[in-house]
Amino acid sequence: MFIDFFYKLKEVGIPVSPTAFLTLHRALDKGLVQSLGDFYTASRAILVKSERYFDLYDQVFAHYFEGAEMPEGEDGYALTEMARMMLDSWLQDPKTLAQALGVDESELSKMSPDELIEYFKERLREQTERHDGGGKWIGTGGTSPVGHSGYHPGGMRVGGVSRNRSAVKVAMDRRYRDYSLTGPLRQSMMGEALKRLRHLVPTGPKDQINIDATLYQTMKNGGEIEIVFERSLKDRLKVILAIDNGGWSMDPYIPVVQHLFYHARAQFKELKTYFFHNTIYDYLWEDPTRYKKPRRIDEFASWDPETRFILVGDASMAPYELMATDGSIHIEERSGQPSIERLRFLARTFRHSVWLNPVPQGSWGYTRTITLIRQIFPMFELSIDGLEKAVEHLMAD
Amino acid sequence: MLDNGSGKTFSGASKYVLDEELARIVNISMALEMPLLLKGEPGTGKTMLAHAIAENLQMPLIVLNVKSSMKLVEALYQYDTLTRLNDSRFGDSRRDVSNIEEYIRMGKIGQAFTADTRTVLLIDEIDKADTDFQDDMLDVLDQMEFDIIEIDKTIRAKHRPVFIITSNAKKDLSDPFLGRCNFHHIAFPDPKMMRKIVNVHFPDIDSQLAENAIAAFYRLRELDAVEKRPATRELLNWIRALNMDPDFRPRDLAKGDVPYLGVLFKKSQDYQIASNSVRRRRLF
């Protein structure tokens, strides 16, 4: 029973184990599950072991038992792409498209591009539903395991749709969306993100004697002296934060990142923020306008090499900006070194460095410059998960 | 009604507002004899749940507060070497020095195993300890027994305790450990639920005060960049404080006058952010 459901969970990336699946069946056999609502809670408690996956679980549950659309994955992507194409053709020839959709052209022309895309998506969804709505799981006399005529040997019988609705509706509420840890960092995740940064503290060698533990161990050994060492505290870290504030694509992330590090600054010995556009040439700027206070890259060689160097940017640009000797758009930056050499220099200077990228990791392979920069700096997604991994990397020896 | 093996069903307690979903999970875990792992923000009532279960099912509650340096063996039993050394030196106690068993003291898990009735064992904030602690515990959970090495004796659980384990998610728990537990994440209560909770604690509270306080509380929780957001405990204390103040009128809250912010925000940075935004009335 529910093997499809189990595999669907696995497919979307929830780490479900067969043992847990068997446990779920034990619960079913014992008659502990008497409604779809029970099944929703029981299978979540038994199969899903972290609140990060609750949101995915809700989506799969709603999809499996009610045929709700799955927003993740290729379908959602295709939908967006389709809507984009429609927007393009709208811009070229508004009249034909309006006619095709059967709406008034002037109606559409009032909307902003974003609204238009949403509107197109809405229309596309209606289309798909009308044509192949057979994928719903709850219907009468269908092949569904949980329909009116559905029957479970363990005694589970679903009374009617109204009962199912409630559990599915609960799932469709997507109460756990905020706990999902993928996706770019948002203001609401600040607290969680700060907790991840807390690990950005140094640990020294074990070179201090713990007198209490030594006494205890010695007593336990019957007088044989055993000295217990522990870690001494080390100085706090220096951190350089370099942010790409050039393109509009970075705009939503800059305040989040700056706030994040600003609130964590008490745990650092020193926190410096610099700005750049797309990539680094001869200068980093202390002011966000990248005009008043330039700092030469060569000067960074005199910094403490133990400083943690964190770059934040989408690393997406035209390849010549990275590779050409005159790639910079700033006329004064003409030292003749291509940006990629500058990046290598920084990576050599600071052995603990990471690049945080708000672009989802899945699409990094499509951008040439991301691939190139990844070879120089370890790159992590600007998400809670990515941040955690980045901190781990920065603290590794 | 669900049968969870003990013939009893958990349905809430006098000072605990239980949502139906959680009640189901508690009952299923008890019936499957699996530990229940609870995660959630501080102040969502993880620890209170164990107290409520114990009260409701009238089982004794044993609490193991996990500390960061704790080894599992401390939770099982302790061999009091120091007393034994002392006794062997001075010999003025009635204990038999040659019998090591007299110097073995049961830890919290040991107490739960040797108790004469079924107990509720709360293992509080397990994520504080090393992963070793969890790994060592796997065996104990599986076998329901442990060995006392010093006297080569095996302690079996007389009654399988109801395990409630809480975690604040400071560290991730290991996969094998998670595999043996049922899991639930307690989300922060919504305002309606919070109203119920407040009513349970303050049965005769002025309803205008309760509503205004809860509304202000949720607005304050929305503040960006606050590290430690106020939780249920802070709200209850805050309401208590407001109740005690003879000069306070619930109307003031709606006007944007929020006294005793220090009860809600306990980190100085957070306090500053909160008091700034209250002063600027940006919130209200």
Order of SSEs of chain A, N→C? HHHHHHHHHHEHEEHEEEEHHEHEH
Which strand-content bin applies to the residues of chain B?
5-15%
Number of domains of chain B: 2
Biggest interface, and residues per chain?
A: A-B, 34 and 35 residues
Mean pLDDT of chain B: 81
Structural notes for this entry:
The complex is a heterodimer of chains A (397) and B (284). Chain A is α/β, with parallel strands linked by helices and 397 residues long. Chain A has four domains: 3-67 and 136-179, no CATH class; 73-133, no CATH class; 203-235, no CATH class; 237-395, Rossmann fold. Chain A contains 16 helices and nine strands. In chain A, helix 10 runs parallel beside helix 16. Chain A is flat and about 85 Å long. Chain A starts with a helix and ends with a helix. By secondary structure, chain B is an alpha/beta fold. Chain B has two domains: 20-186, Rossmann fold (3-Layer(aba) Sandwich); 191-279. In chain B, the strands form three sheets. Chain B has a five-stranded parallel β-sheet, with helices on both faces. In chain B, a hairpin with a 4-residue loop joins strand 6 (145-148) and strand 7 (153-156). Chain B is elongated. At the A-B interface, helix 2, helix 3 and helix 10 of A face helix 1, strand 1, helix 4, helix 7 and strand 9 of B.
